[in-house]
């Protein structure tokens, strides 16, 4: 039996006691009032009292029953906690580790299977997950359902690594349930108090995981409240660590473009990667402030380096679609002393924005100022091709899977055709994560324009970048 079912049984038993005890008390009061005299006389007052108390008793019982139904804690399909009930139980038991598992292909499953098959699959999934956790002898574990395709797991008194291993084993063993192929994403973190925020953070971690080509399941060693504090302090004091990845132009082996990677500097822990701090910034509504800070830093840095150097950096599409952010960004660009073409904004979206024409007008405004626009991780989603059909990008940076799997005939032929298509549209092409000479040679044969990776050079810290490209080097 699931812990959630045990807790629900206890709750119903307590509700039954709450309903039963008043009944017994009322019956006792009625009996006392009627039989307190030796000569029993059922006068009018006694009859009225009996009827009134009976009505109150019946009304109270129905009220408790209705309240019990409206406050049902368990999900109808899986018999695990609903999300709000999960949070209440987590708070009550002071759980310290939480994970979120999502069925990443649930939309496809809904398209090809009926309701009965899907519900049966979900029941079996939860049952197997519960068995897997019980086999690992967790001290206290609860499960909850989040939306239609998410499952929350929380433990108390067990370390995160133990839960992480259990989830990985479960996923590895349950990629097919009945006849249904199931694909998963999951994230895991420590937590202490902010359980509802922790759930949102896990959701954002998975969202970032989906938006990258690398299929890593995300885990974080810092508690959500500490992570929030570190992120806020780093943004307030501009404690950002910039590294610069050189892009080599294969035609002449010249390096004149650098791609930026940003981490947050944390005083008492390791530097934070974007996949961990970006969800915090998003949840606090600070992503636009962060993006503007990055843009200001890059533009000021371009004023200090040689005029032939350009820098590419990622900006969130959500920031670019914000009118206030657009105004501030354009003001920074116009007030700078650099040629705007040295600014390369990288964009990536998994799904095409619903107001495509409006979004493209924003990109066109930036293009009118001379800023170059690069579509990042091209080929990893359908949105990439949609945007390319409707907007003339300056650059395309292919998803790293094409580089890593370039030895595969099918992958290499697709990449070659995409490079050819880009050439016909006068779009500069870039391959990233080029770490081996063989990859470089194949890409040269495909006539790609730029490559980035350890085969070119390791990433440079900002002082190294300035030393290599500062204007004083030309004197």
What is the topological layout?
Blueprint: H1 3-34, H2 44-70, E1 81-82, H3 83-93, E2 97-103, H4 106-112, H5 115-135, E3 141-146, E4 150-155, H6 160-173, E5 176-177, E6 180-181, E7 184-190, H7 195-211, E8 218-220, H8 224-236, E9 240-249, E10 254-264, H9 274-283, H10 287-302, E11 310-314, H11 317-320, H12 323-335, E12 343-347, H13 356-368, E13 372-378, H14 382-390, E14 395-398, H15 400-404, H16 409-424, E15 428-431, H17 437-445, E16 450-452, E17 460-461, H18 462-469
Helix pairs in contact: 1-2, 5-6, 7-9, 8-9, 10-12
Brief rundown of the structure:
With 475 residues, this protein is of the alpha/beta class. It has 3 domains: 3-70; 81-221, Alpha-Beta Plaits (2-Layer Sandwich); 227-474, Alpha-Beta Barrel (TIM Barrel). It contains 18 helices and 17 strands.
Protein traits:
single chain, 475 residues, alpha/beta, Alpha-Beta Plaits, TIM Barrel, 3 domains, 8-stranded mixed barrel, 6-stranded mixed beta sheet, 52% helix, elongated, transmembrane helix, cyclic-guanylate-specific phosphodiesterase activity, transmembrane
How would you portray this structure in words?
- It is built from 18 helices and 17 strands.
- It has an 8-stranded mixed β-barrel with strand order 9-10-11-12-13-14-15-16, surrounded by 5 helices. The protein has a 6-stranded mixed β-sheet with strand order 1-3-4-2-7-8, sandwiched between helices. Strands 5-6 form a two-stranded antiparallel ribbon.
- The relative contact order is 0.07.
- The longest helix has 32 residues, at 3-34.
- Strand 5 (176-177) and strand 6 form a beta hairpin.
- Helix 5 (115-135) packs across helix 6 (160-173), helix 7 packs across helix 9 and helix 10 packs parallel to helix 12.
- It has 475 residues and is an alpha/beta fold.
- The radius of gyration is 30 Å and the shape is elongated.
- It folds into 3 domains: 3-70; 81-221, Alpha-Beta Plaits, CATH 3.30.70; 227-474, EAL domain (TIM Barrel).
């Amino acid at each position: 039996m699931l812990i959630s079912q045990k807790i629900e049984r206890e709750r119903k038993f307590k509700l039954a006691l709450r309903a039963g005890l008043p009944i017994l008390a009322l019956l006792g009061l009625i009996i006392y009032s009627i039989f307190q005299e030796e000569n029993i006389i059922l006068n009018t007052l006694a009859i009225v009292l009996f009827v009134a108390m009976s009505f109150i008793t019946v009304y109270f019982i129905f009220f408790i029953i209705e309240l019990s139904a409206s406050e049902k804690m368990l999900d109808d399909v899986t018999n695990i906690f609903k999300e709000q009930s999960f949070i209440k139980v987590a708070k009550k038991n002071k759980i310290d580790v939480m994970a979120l598992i999502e069925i990443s292909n649930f939309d496809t499953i809904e398209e090809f299977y009926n309701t009965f098959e899907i519900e049966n699959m979900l029941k079996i999934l939860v049952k197997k997950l519960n068995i897997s956790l019980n086999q690992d002898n967790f001290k206290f574990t609860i499960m909850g359902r989040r939306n239609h395709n998410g499952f929350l797991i929380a433990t108390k008194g067990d370390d995160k690594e133990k839960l992480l291993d259990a989830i990985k084993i479960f996923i590895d063993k349950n990629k097919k349930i009945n006849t249904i192929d199931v694909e998963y994403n999951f994230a895991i973190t420590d937590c202490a108090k902010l359980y509802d925020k922790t759930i949102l953070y896990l959701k954002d971690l998975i969202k970032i995981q989906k938006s990258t080509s690398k299929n890593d399941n995300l885990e974080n060693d810092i508690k959500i409240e500490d992570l929030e504090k570190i992120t806020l302090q780093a943004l307030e004091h501009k404690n950002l660590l910039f590294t610069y990845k050189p892009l080599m132009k294969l035609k002449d082996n010249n390096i004149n473009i650098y791609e930026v990677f940003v981490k947050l500097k944390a005083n008492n822990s390791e530097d934070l990667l974007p996949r961990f701090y970006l969800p915090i910034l998003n949840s606090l509504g600070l992503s636009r402030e962060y993006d503007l800070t990055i843009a200001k830093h890059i533009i000021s840095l371009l004023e200090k380096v040689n005029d032939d150097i350009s820098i590419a950096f990622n900006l969130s599409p959500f920031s670019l679609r914000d009118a206030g952010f657009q105004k501030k960004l354009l003001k920074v660009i116009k007030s700078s002393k650099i040629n705007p073409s040295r600014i390369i904004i990288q964009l990536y979206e998994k799904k095409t924005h619903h107001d495509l024409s409006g979004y493209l007008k924003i990109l066109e405004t930036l293009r009118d100022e001379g800023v170059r626009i690069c579509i990042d991780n091209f080929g990893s989603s359908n949105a990439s091709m949609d945007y390319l059909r409707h907007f003339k990008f300056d650059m395309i940076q292919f998803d790293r899977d094409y580089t890593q799997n370039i030895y595969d005939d099918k992958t290499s032929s697709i990449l070659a055709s995409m490079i050819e298509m880009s050439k016909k549209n006068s779009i500069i092409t870039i391959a990233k994560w080029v770490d081996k000479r063989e990859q470089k040679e194949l890409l040269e044969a495909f006539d790609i324009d730029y490559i980035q990776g350890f085969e070119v050079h390791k990433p440079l810290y900002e002082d190294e970048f300035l030393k290599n490209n500062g204007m004083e080097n030309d004197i």
